[in-house]
Amino acid sequence: MKSDEAAHVALIERFYNAFSRRDPDGMLACYHRGVMFSDPVFPSLDALGAASMWRMLCARGKDLVVGVSDIRADASTGSARWVATYTFSATGRKVANRIAAAFDFRDALIVRHVDRFSLWRWAAIALGPKGALLGWCLPVRAAIRAQAAKSLAAFAGAQV
What we know:
- The chain is of the alpha+beta class.
- It has one domain: Nuclear Transport Factor 2, Chain: A (Roll).
- Helices cover 46% and strands 32% of the residues.
- It has six helices and five strands.
- Strand 3 and strand 4 form a beta hairpin.
- The protein starts with a helix and ends with a helix.
């Protein structure tokens, strides 16, 4: 493994190790100041938005367990598979969300982070039968995103 590849694998490992400790500062130390983050719930976050999101998830994830596997990287990109297991506070339901992550690197840091998972599958687990039945509908997906954005804005506002 070349030195860039090994360094990028180690960077991804550091990111998820910090996440498993619910240490957002450790996670954010792995990010470039110009990082962009995207997933099905938060489709476009800049560095400030991503920092707020990770801080919120770490603060609220009292029973959060993070498992990571299949970490790979080359000189400019990387990937990992990870599972977040937690209790969804709105319903009290236990969730195990399986996620595929993709990374781009700049200046030995993560500059782009994209997490992919099935929002329909997540809704079925987190919301129960209603989520399973309606989680594929665009209005339901939009409502999930809107509620998440509202929660993030409230959390970020409370941190100021």
